[in-house]
Structure prediction request, 694 residues.
Amino acid sequence: MAVQPLYITSSILIRNGKVFKNGKELLNRADADSAGFLKALYEKTGVSYPKFYKMDNLCKAAWAGAELLVQGTGFNEIYSSEKKGIFLQNAASSSDTDLKHAASIASVEQYFPSPAVFVYTLPNITIGEICIRHKMQGSSAFFIFEGFEPDFLLEQVQIHMDAGRTDACITGITEWFGNQYEICLFMVEKKAGGEFSLALMTENMKTIYNQS
Amino acid sequence: MKVFITGIGAVSAIGMDVSQMLESLVAEKHGIGRVSILETAHADTLPCGEIKITDEEFIQRLGIPPDRKINRTTLLAITAVQEALASSGGKISDPLRTGLISSTTVGGMTTTEKYFYDFDSVPETRDWIEKLDCGDSTNDIAKYIGHRGFMTTLSTACSSSANAIILGANMIKAGLLDRVICGGADALSKFTINGFNSLMLLEQEHCRPFDKERKGLNLGEGAGFVVIESERAVEEYQRTPLAEVAGYSNVNDAFHQTASSPDGAGAQMAMKNAMLMAGVSPADIDYINVHGTGTPNNDESESKAIKAIFEKAPSFSSTKAYTGHTLAAAGGIEAVISVLAIRNRLLFPNLNYKNRMDDIDFDPVTQLVENADIRHVISNSFGFGGNNTSLLFRKV
Amino acid sequence: MEKQELIETLKGQIITQLNLEGMQPEEIDADAALFGDGLGLDSIDALELIVLLEKEYGIKIEDPKEGKKIFHSVTTLADYILANKP
Prediction:
């Protein structure tokens, strides 16, 4: 199968209360606690999306990350919904919310499992939230690894792009557990972008991921 | 590069292996009933497809040293993986580039919730904490069968094992692997029973997929795995191909976190793409093993999707009234059922179907059909998060 | 409990239970539709309201379809609670 060149045309890194887009600092709220930071992140998107408040922390961070990643690109204008794919990974899966749900059914006296919490006990709900927002209906998958696995993600993206199943996709790591989090997302297209574009190579993914 | 299924393995409430499962399917013997092995407050009110074998009995059957800590999801998975590998005629030691792609939604939750309150005070129970991890389950399967090659774990809710098969087939087609053991497993847990109950998706009686009066689903547990191999491996090792993995598609419904879109847009796309990839038209589809959970929302949406795509609805049935909804295992178990349909020329009935729903002008298969000429089967698996997958198997 | 008092309590409970960030009780019109065009709640919110009824008022709703009428507005919800309180 032919392997065609692919490009990273936008990137987002969210870690330690800071956000970097295409390598440049976009937001610095290192002073805020996680709830405050998530709120600042939402405000930074400039979008009114009341559903945001109902999401769990993982979805909030990933959703906002995807929003900032997509802004200023032609992602939603150029590509048809069936040709937009998303491939994510993390290490903790949805454990952050799993534990909340487990706690809600652990107590005999306060036994009230919440549907709104249970919904988020799957990592691919993160994908669902991003797909709903950007009307992405192409291939998607969420993988669990011990750490960041750019080689694997790259392989996934390449297979789907080469097979013609997707024309553009979002890939990367979306992690939230307790107070630890990191979101590192890449937009991948078949053509080099305008102001920002890097060849889709593991080294470039690592450079962006390791920026801070 | 064509990809073939060469081995199948399944364990569920209707059988400890594939032959028992086939017997139950033919005899219309379902596995839904009172929960007696898992301790839950809902044992009497929410019937499930529980496998009536304790963890200890599984450990004994599999010959695992009793002091090894292995969770129920993994015990189910090992049972099905072993059967699938044996039925392919292959050995894990064959000099092929072999992969193991397992999927689960609850991982070791069944034991984690059992010891939740003991972790503080009883240090011995803490080993179970790391067993919660979904990936740990795949590690244990690999250890048990002696697999050292590529492995990964996938979790996309109820479409997990169907997606494991897609990932495996893609990796073979991309020339990265020659053979992949892929599928999924999920044990019953309080976690899922209470979660689905909070979403009011559970039926208090035996579920009635596609029936007008259906109220919800019954949860189940189990594992379903297939061995898929490249055309070249099949020739080189003289395997008997059971079916071709001719088409597949994974799309997103992009509608709601848990509910399907009213017109089944995602389901339509998934089925259409799978047919496109296999080079067949709707008229070529002889049977659909539908997702058919029995919830008002899924069955209506899936019916609408079938109506939209097919001029005349092909034979279809949900087998979830037999097994319960086994979540991550469902796609694997139903892939096995699809292969059984093709190989045995059988159409399995959709149990408990009585009345047609409004606006729909077709019914599922309600009685066993023998000598059915089945060349192409679609197996649907739809998961929370809008994750919709269709697999298309071709007779060989 | 007086109906008016119950309505005010409910508004606060709805905001907390449904995570309606940034919304004040006085912004909720007691007679406006909670779902659809009103507060824009969805099916999972309806399930959360069912949990709220059970947790705070000991009222169980078995069929989610029943919820449609009961949760039409804060006023209909209050009426239902007063009529069905154990």
Summary: Residues 258 and 384 of chain B are 5 Å apart (CA to CA). The longest strand of chain B covers residues 3-12.
